[in-house]
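Fold this sequence, please.
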Amino acid sequence: MTSDTAKHAEIQAFEDHYAYNGEFMHDLLTLLPEGYTTFENFRPMAFFRKTLPLDAYWIAKLATMQQEDCGACLQLNVKMALEQGLPKELVHDALTGGATLPDELSIVYTYAQQVATGGEVEDSVMAQMTQQFNLAQLLEFGLCIASTRVFPAIKRAVGGTEACALIDIAV
């Protein structure tokens, strides 16, 4: 199997495992192999978690994805969060606006959405985040939030909205 053939097989396995349309990845690999290599090298940043608790990490990712995506990438992240052990109740709470999350996660949800929209983070939100998390963790949130935005942007850049049809998110 050639290197590209093996990579296409890896993408297909990912698609099959998560019931996700990864056509943009196949296209990137076929049409712009160097771009795919760059994308491949980026992926570890997208899933980097060293100091953040699992629940805070995934709540930030889900809150960000709700700002960025119309459905398929959000569903993918829901599946990944559940697969890594985030309780269904927390996923459900995040998907319904975050208001019913425990206080320490509700602030993460609000923070992630404010950061993801590119506006100012409210002083009160930032104060709570700096009380709850250290600088390394805030930086890790930055990586989490910024990297979450990349995947839907790539899909939208190539008109991939047909793969992004609004869907009912399953938990």
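The chain has a mean pLDDT of 92. The CA atoms of residues 25 and 31 lie 10 Å apart.
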